[in-house]
């Protein structure tokens, strides 16, 4: 078995090398990987899916999302309630929300508040609502809001830009003012502003803390710095996808010569090891069986079960006499009544049990006459 150690070491080196190669060439595992509901965008920091990511360090406070029964991503605002997440723009730090299909967004927005949350409103669209007779209609009539309709009237919503022109036309067909609603959105310079005009179905909120937009734009990973506190850091170790590929090829180019060197080194060590073992084997080939046994047990010990099978006596019990040798040749202490002794059957020499037991575990020979004893745990020099 000992002769196979260099081979086992070489295989271990191969195995370790390929594990390391796979670890470095493959993307590193993330503490908070992206999560998905069946419907919606990927979820990553500063958000988390609370059901599947119990680690609170995966999300900034107030950015917990959940998957509803329809497997849609939802956000629960402290006072205004739950909304469906339409999309998340991480670089713009904007989230688009809508109401449930059976809900009425403009009705909910009449009492909408962001108190107690991290969200901000960059811009507002002011909508004026009009009640119109059910049968009234004209080409270019503003957006209908069916969820606000009554039994005998329909409701339309008009933006502040269209209001001067539309008011006259709506009044001409019997429509009357029915209040206003403010729809949260983003600045007009934001590419998402056009999407905000899809009222009455969606609205936009922004966040400024934590600031991770530039990190995501640079292919970095945003997250907490350390295990405590709210300080944010951007990790860009892997770079862009192209740079990650370049780094992997660089690693492969460097590692191949290193691996060849390791193989050559192990090969050289294996040859030296085998030569030394062969020299030890040659030294014992000309010895008699007794001398060979003595040479072998020098590096061997006995197993515990064999040692325990040797007789053990207590001086004075049942008339047990004092040994002929008055002194234990291991600890050099004189024997006293009540001392526990163990006797080696082959030569009948006795010693303190607490002295001879550890001795035989290391050296399978009698410490007094040097006679080899019993079964040894390792006694083969062969290659």
TrEMBL record:
CDD domains: RING-H2_PA-TM-RING. Its main location: membrane. The keyword Metal-binding applies. It is found in: Membrane. Pathway: Protein modification; protein ubiquitination. The chain crosses the membrane at residues 249-269. The keyword Nucleotide-binding does not apply. It catalyses: S-ubiquitinyl-[E2 ubiquitin-conjugating enzyme]-L-cysteine + [acceptor protein]-L-lysine = [E2 ubiquitin-conjugating enzyme]-L-cysteine + N(6)-ubiquitinyl-[acceptor protein]-L-lysine. Residues 1-27 form the signal peptide. GO terms for cellular component: membrane. Belongs to the RING-type zinc finger family. ATL subfamily. This is RING-type E3 ubiquitin transferase. It comes from Eucalyptus globulus (Tasmanian blue gum). The lineage of its organism: Eukaryota, Viridiplantae, Streptophyta, Embryophyta, Tracheophyta.
């Amino acid at each position: 078995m000992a002769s196979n150690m260099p081979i086992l070491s070489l295989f271990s080196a191969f195995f370790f090398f390929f594990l390391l190669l796979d670890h470095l060439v493959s993307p590193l595992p993330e503490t908070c990987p992206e999560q998905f509901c069946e419907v919606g965008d990927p979820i990553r920091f500063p958000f988390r899916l609370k059901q599947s990511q119990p680690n609170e360090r995966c999300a900034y406070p107030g950015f917990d999302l959940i998957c509803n029964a329809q497997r849609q991503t939802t956000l629960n605002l402290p006072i205004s309630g739950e909304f469906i997440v339409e999309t998340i723009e991480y670089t713009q730090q904007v989230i688009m929300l809508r109401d449930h299909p059976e809900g009425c967004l403009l009705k909910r927005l009449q009492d909408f508040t962001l108190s107690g949350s991290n969200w901000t409103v960059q811009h507002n669209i002011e909508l004026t609502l009009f009640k119109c007779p059910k049968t009234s209609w004209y080409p270019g009539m503003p957006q209908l809001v069916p969820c606000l309709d009554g039994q005998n009237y329909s409701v339309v919503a008009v933006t502040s830009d269209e209001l001067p022109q539309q008011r006259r036309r709506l009044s001409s067909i019997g429509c009357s003012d029915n209040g206003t609603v403010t729809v949260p959105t983003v600045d007009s310079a934001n590419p998402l502003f056009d999407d905000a005009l899809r009222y009455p179905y969606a609205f936009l909120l922004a966040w400024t803390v934590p600031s991770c937009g530039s990190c995501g734009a640079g292919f970095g990973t945003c997250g907490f710095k350390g295990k405590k506190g709210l300080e944010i850091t951007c990790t860009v170790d892997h770079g862009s996808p192209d740079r990650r590929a370049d780094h992997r090829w660089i690693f492969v180019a460097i590692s191949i010569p290193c691996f060849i060197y390791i193989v050559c080194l192990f090969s050289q060590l294996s040859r030296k090891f085998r030569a030394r073992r062969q020299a030890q084997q040659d030294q014992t080939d000309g010895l008699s069986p007794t001398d060979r046994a003595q040479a072998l047990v020098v590096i061997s010990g006995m197993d515990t079960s064999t040692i325990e099978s040797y007789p053990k006596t207590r001086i004075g019990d049942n008339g047990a006499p004092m040994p002929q040798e008055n002194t234990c040749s291991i600890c050099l202490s004189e024997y006293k009544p009540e001392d526990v002794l163990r006797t080696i059957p082959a030569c009948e020499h006795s010693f303190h049990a607490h002295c001879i037991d550890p001795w035989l575990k290391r050296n399978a020979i009698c410490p007094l006459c040097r006679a080899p004893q019993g079964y040894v745990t390792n006694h083969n020099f062969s290659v």
